[in-house]
Design a protein that fits this description.
Length: 822
Amino acid sequence: MPALDEYTIVDLSSGIAGAYATKLLADGGATVIKVESPQGDPLRSWSASGAHIEPGTDGALFSFLACSKHSVVVDPQRADDLEVLRALVRSADAVVWSRGSEVAELGEFAPAALADAYGHLTVTAITPFGLDGPWADKPATEFTLQAWSGGVIGLGRGAPDRAPLFVAGQIGEWLAGAYAAAGTTTAASGLVDVSILEAQILCLTYYSVSFNDALGRPFRDRRRLTVPGVASAADGLVALGCGTAQQWFDLCAMVGHDEWIDEGGDLSITEQANIHAEQIYGWVRENRVEDILELSSAFRIPNAPVGNGATVTGFDQFVERGTFVTNPRDGFTQPGPPYRTTPSLLREPQPAPRLGEHTDLYRSRTVQQGRDSAGDATLGLLPRTVQQGRDSAGDTTLGLVSRTPFEGLRVLDMTSFWAGPSCTHMLTLLGAEVIHVESTARPDGTRLIAGVPITEEQWWERSPIFSGLNTNKKSVTLDIRTERGVELLRRLITTCDVVVENYTPRVLDQIGLDFDAVHRLRPDAIVMRMPGFGLDGPWRDKPAFAYVIEDCSGITWLTGHPDQNPVEPYSVGDPNAGVHGLNALLLALAHRRRTGEGVRIEAAMVDAALNVAAEQVIEYSAYGNLLQRQGNRGPTAAPQNLYRTSELDEFGRPDDWVAIAVATDEQWAGLVDALACPAWATDEMTTVDGRRRHHDTIDEHLSAWCADRSGGEIVETLWAAGVPVAKVMQPHRVGDLPQLVHRGFYEEVDHPVNPTARHSTLPMRLASVRSFHHSPAPLLGQHNREVLTGLGLSEDEIAELEEQAVIGSAPAGLTIRTTKTG
């Protein structure tokens, strides 16, 4: 039975973010009623490639996102239609809202008004900056939000001799949608205020504010290409990467240059790779893609073919696992769900509705209920979850919340690096007790990438990235290479409601702790495994880091200048997997509440990535159009680009930029007025098609205009004219943005080793949560005694474990290779 089959959602959103949020909920079994104005959702006529959509038909992306939903048309000028909408809202569990439709813009159905009028509802609002704050009503697009987020410069994306690059594919919309889905099912009731900007900060930058606060320097202070990254082989493109020092050493050996290995040097592995870039690229050019992939897998170097809308569906891994499915209405190819569960908690996708397909059904129900209940226009019995919530003195809609959403939930966190810890971090920020398992032989990898010399005291505790991902958690060290360590891990599992791991699949199999083994220990446990490519298939044991997930899923393909190879975002793959894992866990928790049963979840990183890159496959399958890189241009706005200002950046380089994106004809008129109606702005440019034809000319003139002005002056002028604009922020400076300060997105966290630093929270505000961070990230093994004593061990037994190095509080022998990755 689908997990959310008793859950009803009214969808008042427009665009990808709300549509994807409600798609995830519909996939989980919820009844999603999409309320549209008579004109229909603009996505019905959308195609990123400009494919012609016949009147009365729907675009393929809409057909994908609207699977299993109902469509009800509400004309805001008709009183009876508004009464139908009121009835829908009264009987729903949640409303998902964004600006963009006539109905959503009605004051009665604004988020705060809905939350006030219908106390049982969860109201999830998705906006660029959040519902309140000094920027709440400022114009913005996906592109300008990425600039504000620090994600355009981000992790040093792009070559320094050209403009920095945004991550294409409307990725921020998809990410915000995933967070909105999780927020909707997490909250008991009240307002869930989702900010797309904050979602981008979490997913396109790497805890840069915390890093700068704690260590007094940015994570990266310049842009440089990732080497090898995406490279040209003898017969096509291939992607290789080094996420750790060991992987860099192995790459040196693979290409025949062991002499490049410099374990004690001051240069980061990124800097070393750039020094030897030409020789590395030369080696790649001499070899075939298939041979490079096979050899790099043997060396345990992260690798992948570079996928796009035309090729990704044919990759062996996805064919064998049945990753792609057929759209149930229009027959094109689309990705399957971003996670798999046993028992199945997902419904088979049903055809997307035609505009207004269910209007008569819901209107007749409203009329009948009005006759039967003396004016109580509901749709029948309240959904059981709502009624239970009303009857149980504040129990949550899905039964997951007491005072904070996950209070009383105990989670065993066997994850490392970014994807897994980001998922469990969201649980602990919302009240769960999370026990993070490491070992002294293999601490969490993010402890080792701060570039802190091992000569410094407690150098392994200095990483702001580990800190950013692990506040509120407890740390236990267990050497699971030993029989005693595995025994203790088994005992710990019996005390936990949820077990999450993201080791390579063979690790748990080797120690006998697969799904079946865990459920024998605790039958009602929810066990989520987060492999890179899945638990089966020919790529099962490939090492997976964010960039190779981006490469093979198509996310990388769209990012970059059209005359160069694609550029890896180097960020999206991990946190995207984390938030999708959270959505899967929420389904499992709802199922367990109802049935008492445990659940097995396989949340492969690549399946989550393929879902947020779905538009490429859909466009190619439905229309035969392969989406291509456009640099900083894109399909949603024209002009859209980065323009250099008159200022130097904070490092004294002529690398200071603004982002401008004109999404409507009205915004173009505002831009022309702000520029004092220059003669070059011809009548032909008043339409989007005309602006696209003359984009080069517009860029030339905007570049000249911006080159004489500071970023602040440009933003002030264009925002006043209603034009989406942004400074291209250094990511370590975004914590000072007035909007983020107002919303409290960053909270100061003390630390026993590092200075106090600002830490990011979640990209949403919930009525039940006043603050997120309650304790600093744990020191290595800090909670060994607390947790092991709770398992019944004596002080003597714990001391013996320390003597045997089964547990500990420092990296074993202090010999871990710690070459910087920055």
